[in-house]
Amino acid sequence: MGHSLNEVPVSMNAARPAARPPGPPAPFEVTVDPATFEVLPRWSAAYGPLLGVRSPHNSRQTYVLFEPELVRHVLVTHHRNYAKGRGFERVKMLLGNGLIVSDGPLWRRRRRMLQPAFQRPSVERLSAVMRAVTHRYLQRWRAAAEEARALDITRETSAFALDVILESIFGQDLAAWRDEAGHTPFHILVDETVRDLRLAVQFRALRKRVIELAHWRRKRDVQRMDFLGHYLAARDAETGAPLDDEALADEVMTLIVAGHETTGVTLNWIWHLLAWHPEAAAQLQAEVDTLPTQAPPRFADLPRLPCARRVMDEALRLYPPVWLFTRRAVAEDHLGGFRVPVGTEIAIPVYTLHRHPDHWQAPEVFDPDRFLPERTRARHRYAYLPFSMGARRCTGEVFAQTETLIHLGWVARHLTFEPLDPEVVPLEPGVNLRPARPIRLLPHLRRQDTD
Ligand code: HEM
C-alpha cells in the first residue's frame, strides 16, 4: 500500500477488500506465551501496521494490530462487531461468566449492575483499606531496612496487592479466615508461582468459601460498603434481581484475579525501575515530602502527586501487565483495507504498541516525563492502553491507580531501594507480564527516618 492506513477512508476500505493482510507464511498461534512475545516486534517491523497469521487449529486468521487507529476501530468505534477472543477460553474455567469473560447482553447488564462499586465514591471509601495495608507493609519493609535484609520485592508486592484486594472485597470478615500465620486460603495466589491446573482446582474450591460468606451476610442482613457488600446489594436494572450464588462467586473470583497480580506486578516494576533510576526516585521523594507526614496520603491528596503518577504511567508503558489481549469478529467488518470475516481473531499487542518507534521516542528508555501533559497531547491517544479502551476498558482502573499512588506516596517517603540483581530482567510473558525470576532489592531508611 502506498499510503498510511490513517489516510485510507473507511468507505474506501469497504470498497476494496484485499485478500488477506501480509504476514508470515507458516501458521502460528498468537497467544500469551514467550514465542508470541518474542516474534511480535519483528513482525511489526517486517509487515507493517496490520498483519495476518493463519491459525494452526483451523482455517481462521489472526490479525495483529500495530497501529493505534486500528486499535480504536476494534475497541471503540466498531466494538459491537467484536467479542472476547480465544485467549479468554483459558480463563473461563476459573472465572465462569465473570465480567472479564462474559459477552453480549449478559456482560452489558452485569457491567451496569456492578459499576457503582468501582466509581470514585466507592474507591475513596476503600482507600482506607489501601492506606492501612500500605502502612503495614511499610513497617515490615522498615524492619528489613534496619536489619540490612534484602526484600524479594516481587513476592512482597504480590502479597501487598492480594491483601488490598481481599480486604477491599471481604472487609472485616477476612479476619475470620486468617490462620495462625495470618494467611487466608487465598494465599495460594502468592505462594504458587506456577500457574497450572492444580492451582486452578484449588482456586475453584475457594468459590465455596465466598458463597458461604455471602449466605451468612444475607441471613443476618449484614450491610457493608466493601466490594462484596456492593455486589450483594446490586440489582439488575430491568428485572430487579440480585446476583445468584454462582454469578456472585464468578464476579468475586474475577475481582481477585483481575485486581491482584496486575497491580502487584506493576508495583514490582515501579520499585525495580526507581532503584535503577535514583534521579527519578529523588524527584518523587521531593514531591511526596510536601504531603502531610503523619499517615499515608489520602484520596484527596493524590492530585498533588503528578510526578508519582508519571512514574506509574511510565512503568505501565514499559511493562504493561496485560501485554496482549484478543477479540473475535462476531460480525463481518473491514479494517485497514482488509475484509474481516466472522471468526477472525484480533490480537492487540499492548507491549509492542507501547514500545513502537513510530509513537515513542527512545522507547526502551525509562522517562516518566513523556507523560507530561504537553507530550501526552502530542501522541496518538491509542498508542497507550495499559487498561484497554472503550466499553470494555478496565473497571478497576481508578482503584488500581489509587492503590498504587497511596503505596508509592507513603513508601517513597520513608525508604529508598538499592538494586541487587541486574537491571535487565528476563521476562515471563504469561497472562500477565511478570519477571521470570523474583527481583531482590535492599531497602534503606531515608535520613528523616534514621534521625
Ligand atoms: C495495574 C493494574 C491493572 C491493569 C493493568 C488492568 C488491565 C486491564 C485490562 C487491559 C483489561 C481489559 C482486558 C480486555 O478487554 O480484554 C481489564 C479488564 C478488567 N479489569 Fe483490570 N487491570 C488492572 C487492575 C484491576 C483491578 C484492581 C481490578 C478490580 C478491582 C480490575 C478489574 C477488571 C475487570 C472487572 C475487568 C473486566 C471489565 C469488562 O470487561 O467489563 N482490574 N483490566
What would you say this structure looks like, in words?
- The protein is an alpha+beta fold and 451 residues long.
- The protein has helices at residues 10-15, 34-47, 68-77, 89-95, 104-114, 120-146, 153-170, 188-191, 197-220, 227-233, 245-276, 278-288, 306-318, 350-354, 373-377, 397-414, 447-450, and strands spanning 50-54, 61-65, 82-84, 151-152, 325-329, 333-335, 338-340, 345-348, 415-419, 427-429, 433-435, 440-445.
- It contains 17 helices and 12 strands.
- The strands form 4 sheets. It has a 5-stranded mixed sheet. A 3-stranded antiparallel sheet has the order 4-12-9. A two-stranded antiparallel sheet has the order 6-7.
- The longest helix has 32 residues, at 245-276.
- Protoporphyrin IX containing FE binds at residues 99-100, 111, 254-255, 258-259, 262-263, 266, 321-322, 325, 386-388, 392, 394-396, 399-400.
- The site of protoporphyrin IX containing FE has 22 residues, from helix 11 and helix 16.
Please give the oligomerization state of what you see.
Answer: single chain
Strand content: 5-15%
Ligand list: protoporphyrin IX containing FE
CATH superfamily of the largest domain: Cytochrome P450
The helicity comes to 40-55%
- SS-based structural class? alpha+beta
Terminal CA distance:
66 Å
CATH class of the largest domain: Mainly Alpha
What is the residue-mean pLDDT, rounded to a whole number?
Answer: 91
Based on CA atoms alone, the radius of gyration comes out at: 23 Å
